[in-house]
Amino acid sequence: MNPSPVVRVSFWTIAVGNPFVLLFHLGLNPTSIQRYISLPKIEDAKVCLIVMSVGYVVFNALFLITGLAIYANYEDCDPLKVGTIRKIDQILPHFVVNEGVEIPGLAGFFTAGIFSASLSSMSSCLNTLSGCLYEDFLVPAHQHFTEQQKSLLLKGIVLIVGVVQLLLVFLVDSLGAAVFQLTVSVLSISGGIAVGLFTAGMILPKMNEHGALYGGICALLVVGGISVGAQMRLREPTLPLRSDGCSNITAISAQSYPEAPSEDDDVSWIFRINYMFYALVGSILVLAVGYPVSLMTGGQRVRDEALLAQFLRKHQQEERREIQYSDVNTENK
């Protein structure tokens, strides 16, 4: 329960930092938005969110159970220290292959499940990204594409982005960082900015394009700098790894492990902020910088109050009162 933001894993990192990442992923991510707007009614989208939330809780419970099973199995004979795996990310496949050998086909089903889930998610992301790039960059420049040209452009964008992603796989593999931490860090940089901008649009009526621009740029530079600095500093120290329970201790790897940082560690605390807080920091920066800039540049008048949060829709509330008053007068007559 340590509230320090530099602690790697605690109750507060999950309860305070992680919801901002999920808010972007489930509520603002274009991939999710396209699925919501494909439904016929907004009530169906709400039901979809509820079902997805329940599924998210179930899947996370399974992840935790899997992690506890791996820990219980390798608690006194860590495969990373022994040298049977090279990276900590390989421990789950290692566990499935070695412990599930008595169950025929388990390793194959595991591999097929990983690939099918990955391909399903990646295909959705590629289609969404191609559509966004086409609508935001190509259509404003040239609005008279034929249907055949549109089809070729969208397919070409998917092909190019797919090739770039394949090349980035080798870059990620050479970074040496945990894949999950790197993924959340990158997602939080853009996710925090998006959450801040949408929040400002709903609750700050005077927020204008100047404030949104400068707030977004400031959040991008600060959170991006923190993320890059965190990746460049020494690796996070691992918990003690045991090998006294191994049946063959002669194969223990000579790999060195990062030691716990000393009290006189000269790394600034800002680079030790937990990566799950990046989205929260980005959202706060967008609001803290963007709103004053909006006020200094004249603010703006809201043209459509339907875009504001419900408690800020003054004119709609007045219209409802007028309608209710007119209905009462009609009934009395």
UniProtKB/TrEMBL annotation:
ATP-binding as UniProt keyword: no
Membrane-related topology note: Multi-pass membrane protein
Entry's Gene Ontology molecular function annotations: symporter activity
Localization per Swiss-Prot or TrEMBL: Cell membrane
GO cellular component: plasma membrane
Keyword list, A-Z: Cell membrane, Ion transport, Membrane, Sodium, Sodium transport, Transmembrane, Transmembrane helix, Transport
Keyword Cell membrane among UniProt keywords: yes
Membrane-spanning parts: none
UniProt record, GO biological process: sodium ion transport
InterPro entries: Na/Glc_symporter_sf, Na/solute_symporter, Sodium:Solute_Symporter_SSF
Pfam name, any one: SSF
Family from the record: Belongs to the sodium:solute symporter (SSF) (TC 2.A.21) family.
Name of the protein: Sodium/solute symporter
Phylogenetic lineage: Eukaryota, Metazoa, Ecdysozoa, Arthropoda, Hexapoda
